[in-house]
Amino acid sequence: MSAAFIDYFIPESSADVTGVDVKHARIGITVVFVIIFWAFLGGLLAIATGLYGSSIAMFLGIVVVGSAPFVLRSTGNLSLTGHLVLGPVFAVLLWTIYEGGGLYSSSTVWLPVLPLLASLFQGNRTARVWLAIVVFSFLGILGATLAGVPFPEISSQREADIQFGLGLVGVGVTSFVLLQLKDNIQSWLAGTLRQKEAETRAVLETAPDGILTVHIGGEILNANPAAGCIFERDPQQIIGRNIAELVTSLDAGALSRIVEGQTFGDTLEHCGQRESTGEFPLEIAFGRHEDRLVLVFRDITERKVVNEQLRSARDAAIEASQAKSEFLARMSHELRTPLNAVIGYSEMIQEDIGLMQEDEVDNVAAVTGFLPDVERIRSAGKHLLALVSDILELSKVEAGQMDVYIEEFDVVELVQDIENTLAPLAIKSGDTFRVQTAEGLGTMRSDATKVRQILYNLLSNAFKFTKDGEVSLRVFAPATTPRAIHFEIKDTGVGMSSEEIGRVFEAFAQADSSTTRQYGGTGLGLTITRHFCALLGGSIDVESTPGNGSLFRIRLAADMRPAPATPAVLPAEV
């Protein structure tokens, strides 16, 4: 029979086309069509011999049994398909046995086929039930024959012999087909099992992890080569020993606790034992099958050493970073004082030369030539002071020495103050500066100095990277976050790529290396801004496209005071 025709009735939901259920279904469909073939021949022969009742029963049975493959295709239920085969076949056999003369009817030879069909469609348990039904049916027919129950008489012995012979041939062929097909599936299962065993053996022999099979009593039943390497013993010498000799922490009590309460698959650390080096750490995952435990383990000595080295290196780096930050934070006064003196004296020299020029002092031309150099000294000093201040400020934040001073201030007034301060910078860059504040902003309870510095840093950057464009500041308080004030700073400057955005908040980093050369700065402004936003209970993020400017969004807590504690409800006095 065509395999494609049979596979048409296999349910489409059967994803594993080589699975046992699929093979059972194929055998079942084949047997159904074999039964239909013999029932069709029997129906034709019944018509020829005048047994019209038997022929009608057989053709009705063909219709019902023929629907079984379609039911299997639509439901995927092999047991239901078996009911549609066994029930009609049994009913047709009982009727044809009665009409064919009882015990000596040709249909009686078909009854032993029913348990075979049941084992195919519904398993051995149902097959035993059908065997009992067949036995009782035989006994009932035998008893009825011995009791003299009148069965319809056979019109011709010759026709009866033909039917009986055809029945024997049909039973023989059908039984052979059933046994052959079941033998094929058993051979397939045996081959599949051998293949799985070979694959499992290959995995065990090549696995880098040690694998032991241990009886729940502690006896080692099997060991792979990796287990022998880890314990420095031949795998055959490991078999038969107690697991506690190799894993000292797995005594009888530990095994009992694992069997009773262990979540299998979890990894635990245990202590192994080697003759050469003594104890060493093991990482073991447990599995269980019936009365056996499967231990998959690896030597983690090197991992322990590496982890300890990494931990020591990390601790040393943290201590060094903290020492550096604390040193710089404490040196703020010492570093700023000489710079302020340099700047102050350069400004005093400039003022003195200016006064000498106004008073037309003799030989003033001799000192006037130093004015450009003095200006360079003052400018360089202020630039250096700004760099040192940024570094010291970041060091204070990293050292945890940055204090937050909470005060109440008007948001609009602070924004107006910043607008007035940065107006000259906007004019110098040729930029249009737009400020938009929402109504009803009210006051903030936060650190006004740090809020001002956050906005100053971002707006200064916007003017630095925008020439003859537009910079805008928008301030609002969304209804969705009533305890927060939002600031949006947008420019039409050079913009940044996604890679540049990823590192723009890192310390000593700018969008790219050319930025420092072209625009100057340490690259600490945005890092300090991000830290300040976190200190003030907020966050900062940025959107940007190269050539189309950038948009910075800042969210700050409107009230930095801790939320009032809910008063405890005291119990009523009794």
Short summary of the structure?
The chain is an alpha+beta fold. The chain is built from 21 helices and 12 strands.
Overview of the structural elements:
By secondary structure, the chain is α+β, with helices and mostly antiparallel strands. 59% of the residues lie in helices and 14% in strands. The strands form three sheets. Strands 2-1-5-4-3 form a five-stranded antiparallel sheet. Strands 7-9-10-12-11 form a five-stranded mixed sheet, covered by helices on one side. The relative contact order is 0.05.
Main beta-sheet strand count, sense and barrel state: 5 strands, antiparallel
Global Rg: 47 Å
User: Overall mean pLDDT score?
Assistant: 78
Residue fraction in strands = 5-15%
Q: Secondary-structure blueprint of this entry?
A:
Blueprint: H1 3-7, H2 20-48, H3 52-66, H4 68-75, H5 78-99, H6 113-122, H7 124-146, H8 157-206, E1 210-215, E2 220-223, H9 225-231, H10 235-238, H11 243-246, H12 252-261, E3 267-274, E4 278-289, E5 292-299, H13 301-330, H14 332-359, H15 365-368, H16 371-398, E6 407-410, H17 411-429, E7 432-437, E8 443-446, H18 448-464, E9 470-476, E10 484-491, H19 498-503, H20 513-519, H21 525-535, E11 539-544, E12 550-557
Parallel strand pairs: 7-9
Antiparallel strand pairs: 1-2, 1-5, 3-4, 4-5, 6-8, 9-10, 10-12, 11-12
Helix pairs in contact: 2-3, 2-8, 3-5, 4-5, 5-6, 6-7, 6-8, 13-16, 14-16, 16-21, 17-18, 18-21
